[in-house]
Amino acid sequence: MKTAFITGATSGIGKATATLLAKNNYRIIICGRRADVLEDVKTELSEQTEVYTLCFDQRNRTDVENAVNSLPQDWQDIDVLINNAGNAHGLDTLADGDVDDWDAMLDGNVKGLLYVSKQIMPIMQQQKSGHIVNISSVAARQTYTNGVVYCASKKAVDVISDGMRLELTEFGIKVTNIQPGLVETDFSKIRFKGDAERASTVYQGYKALEPVDIADAILYCISTPAHVAISDLTVYPSAQSEPRTVYKNL
């Protein structure tokens, strides 16, 4: 049975992916910042498979190192890493931007992904096998106003994915970069700083992607034959033609 390590597994795409992999004969290491929610997810998924929880904030390098190093011996052989955790904060122009928002996005989306990957990549190199899935965004494909730093952080994920592929392929490690379009999660609520009513308008008038749609894509990518590697995958809802354009009432 393979073991998957999933960051941001307490909600949205991360939880949907953990749920789907649990149903498909994977052991799951679920990671997040909320211990109580992690335990709830563990209880739910333990009906399907073995589950281990790690509670840490991936923006804190020491917390990441301590968490991964705390894994029991029988959980240290990690076959799949899914770098899902990330965030978006605010919709200000660069001139009016909140520097704390910038730090949160760059620390979580870029540095946090690197911190986690740095702990897992040597394990896979030693095994000479593994698969890393990084969750980027269509925001990496087209910069838009009032979201420049978020777009930059996701463009960095694209570049890091390319670099991982260059450095890890010789070890038998696959790297997949997935760029989701609009997915109906708590993402917009966080971006709008808890304004649920405003966040809900983002998904009105059309059918957005659901977290399970991206989970399905992840499962497909990590289930290909050994000689097949999906390097990049962009997934839009059918009503979205590019990052800034959504046709409603289709």
Automatic annotation (TrEMBL):
Gene3D superfamilies: NAD(P)-binding Rossmann-like Domain. InterPro entries: NAD(P)-bd_dom_sf (IPR036291), Sc_DH/Rdtase_CS (IPR020904), SDR_fam (IPR002347). GO terms for molecular function: oxidoreductase activity, acting on the CH-OH group of donors, NAD or NADP as acceptor. It comes from the Bacteria. The keyword Membrane does not apply. Pfam families: adh_short. Keywords: Oxidoreductase. Belongs to the short-chain dehydrogenases/reductases (SDR) family. This is SDR family NAD(P)-dependent oxidoreductase. It comes from Marnyiella aurantia.
